[in-house]
Design brief:
The structure is a homodimer of 352-residue chains.
Chain A lengths: L14 E6 L3 H11 L4 E8 L4 H9 L3 E3 L5 H6 L8 H4 L5 E4 L5 H10 L5 E4 L10 E3 L5 H4 L4 E4 L2 H14 L4 E11 L15 E2 L7 H8 L7 E8 L5 E9 L4 H10 L3 E4 L8 H10 L10 E4 L4 E3 L2 E8 L6 H11 L6 H12 L4
Parallel strand pairs in A: 1-2, 1-4, 2-3, 4-5, 5-7, 6-7, 8-10, 12-13
Antiparallel strand pairs in A: 8-11, 9-10, 11-15, 14-15
């Protein structure tokens, strides 16, 4: 019986997903998977019995120790685990890795491949650590049926969406992007900067090539630089895209037609990343996640066929629906990327 | 007797400078003027008897009420004023205006022109409010002998210096600049953002045209966008300059030869705006002012004849030596801009 297809009794054969690392990305992917009709969370893992582990149990997820040797810590903390990752990994159709940077690659080599289970690793890993790099709009087909895929970072995902909108109406000759990156996620009280701007002095930054790992035809065309600034809410991108021609109206229309990216107006009070997050809080979004990419409509301008625009990226959440689509592609549950996007969006309650 | 020339007794005939508005810019210009051999501060004005007014008196500056009707406030606060601006303006060879945005233009029309005194207004005013826009490297000759000149903003001054270095070795075809602006000056505890990135949704921003008001030959070639971020120390610029060709070594050499701009190495620990300011504090600079523009050497890169580089701008102080040079130009005290720059730098103790 094929995953995602209906059984004789009308039930859908669901994909069994294990979340290895129930942290910033992992907990969000778990919730996004749990609300899909064609997949289920068979368990989540944690390395330690912290508040997130406790809340995973309260939500009804089966909890497993990510590191078998540390299983006793959970018992000592009074948290009921269903075993260690070794007890559950064979039951999974696919593992979504939510481990910190570099650990994902280790997990892929030492755990997922050895257990012959498909896996998604996150954007902190390198492009050549996996078979391919995933974005729902650009590389769904390429990742179809694959065993080990890297889901690109929040910034790369955001750029892939806006470049998809632009590419739908004109040809991209060269794109320059300056990324103004948030310092840390909101829950991180250890690191800074508190009052400084930190340049990424490797210019161009790695973000351009990372976009190119998804969009092969843009090879050598995306040049990026980045700075880190003292804010926690969102990243921001200033895009300058040389094209063969487009109008502002074309771009606004193209964004309207592209999934998971939308225009906002500073004139309506959405004049900063803080205002965007306030909107998301008012929308009642879980954890105030803004999975879609907002583009400031006033910032869109075309001069000499070069498109200028500014967008924001909610670093914690824009990749979450992409993880769900990636599962469908890798498990061959849906051939059409747009159909998968629509299923994911509907289940998650996304704008578009 | 001509200002700046030696009298028979060997003394230099000094230019009499009035500082109207002893605030962020005014107090720094006062100190920079006071240490030059060929000019003197005949007085400074304040609108209210605050700590800066008190410290002006302690430094030995003659204090005048900027608004005659408020003179009594100074007496009531126990601060000895030498009169109001009306009592001193006729004695000045030139007034340096340090008033807030838009007030400078009003002062020029209602005060300086009526009293037939030369005046410098600051970069918050618009280009067409004055006869021309000043930068020591680019428009000294144009402003020579003029009566009303605008000294461009800190960001524009910073860009004029780096573009001068680049222009000295290659031809600029198009420059794109993204400005990451500090939120407020360090003494401002009223405004934010505290945790947000604010886009300037007018893209391109006004900074490009402002550079072009100084460098006429770059008309239409400088495109800028800007965001405001939660930091107080310095602005930062990410430059992307299309040229007819240059190497990294060319650029480093050109920066070394250009006054008031220098390269720093992140690898030496100067890896953020905070580290740059720490360096300036360690240098013993008054108010930790870093009047020179630091460019991160690691960030300098050339791809397809396009120069990439990142620089920081100490918003409170980079324009200060330019004000001194502007005085010399407007009062025809020195014909050679490089000689004026050298005099100013030496007196202020600048690096170069």
């Amino acid at each position: 019986m094929k995953i995602g297809h209906k059984k004789k009794n009308g039930d859908v054969m669901t994909a069994k997903i294990l979340i290895n690392g129930y942290g910033s990305i992992g907990k969000r992917v778990a919730d996004a998977v749990a609300c899909q009709k064609d997949m289920e969370v068979i368990g989540v893992t944690k390395t330690k019995p912290d508040f997130e582990a406790k809340m995973a149990l309260e939500k009804g997820y089966k909890l497993y120790a990510a590191v078998p040797e540390r299983a006793h810590l959970f018992e000592e903390a009074g948290l009921e685990i269903s075993g260690t990752i070794d007890d559950v990994i064979q039951d999974a159709d696919l593992v979504v890795d939510g481990a910190p940077k570099k650990i994902g690659k280790q997990n892929l080599e030492n755990l997922y491949k050895k257990n012959n289970v498909k896996a998604i690793i996150q954007g902190g890993e390198k492009a050549n650590d996996a078979e391919d790099s995933f974005n729902s709009l650009w590389s769904y087909d390429r990742c179809y049926g694959k065993d080990a895929i890297r889901l690109v970072s929040c910034n790369t995902t955001g750029l892939c969406r806006s470049l998809y909108a632009i590419d739908s109406i004109t040809d991209v000759l060269k794109a320059r992007v300056v990324l103004i990156r948030r310092a840390v996620d909101p829950n991180d009280s250890k690191k800074g900067p508190v009052n400084a701007i930190i340049p990424s002095t490797d210019v161009p930054s790695h973000h351009g090539p990372d976009v190119e790992s998804v969009i092969k035809k843009f090879k050598g065309k995306i040049i990026s630089s980045a700075v880190i600034v003292p804010t926690t809410l969102m990243h921001m991108h200033s895009l300058m895209v040389e094209t063969t021609g487009a109008t502002k109206d074309d771009i606004v229309d193209a964004i309207a037609k592209t999934p998971r990216i939308f225009t906002v107006k500073a004139s309506e009070g959405l004049d900063s990343t803080a205002a965007l997050i306030e909107m998301s809080r008012d929308m009642g979004r879980l954890r105030y996640d803004l999975n879609e990419i907002p583009v400031w409509e006033e910032s869109i301008n075309v001069i000499d066929n070069e498109i200028f625009m500014m967008q924001a990226v909610h670093q914690e959440s824009d990749v979450i629906p992409e993880n769900v689509d990636c599962i469908r592609a890798m498990l061959q549950m849906e051939e059409d990327n747009i159909k998968s996007i629509e299923m994911t969006n509907k289940a998650m309650g996304l704008l578009k």
